[in-house]
Amino acid sequence: MKILSLFKKQLPLILLATLLHAISALCALFMPYEMGIIVSDGIKQQNATVLKECGIIMGILAVTTLVLSIITVRLNTRIANTFEKELKIKVFKKINSLTFEQFSSIGTSGLLTRANDDISTVRETVSNSISLIINLLVYYVGGVVLVMAKDKLIGIIMLCVSPIVLLVGYLLARKLDKLWEYGDKKTDEQNRHVRERMSGIRVLRAFDKEQEKHEKTAKATKEMVLSFITANRLSGLINPIITVIFNLASVIIVMVSANRISYQSALNAGDIISSIQYIALISSGLIMLSWSFSWLPHVGVCLRRIGEIFAFENSESEQIESFLSGDLVVKNLTFTYPGGGQPVLKNIDFSINTGEKVALIGGTGSGKSTLVKLLLGFYNAQEGKITFGDTEYSESNTKSVRKSVSVALQKAMIFQGTVGQNIACFSKDYTDEQIKEVASVSMLDDFLAEKGGLTYELKQLGSNISGGQKQRVNIARTIIKPSSLYIFDDSFSALDFLTESQLRARLNEYLRGKSQLIITQRISTAMHCDKVYVMDKGEIVAVGDHNQLLKSCEIYNQLYRSQMGGGL
Question: What's the pTM?
Answer without folding.
Answer: 0.67
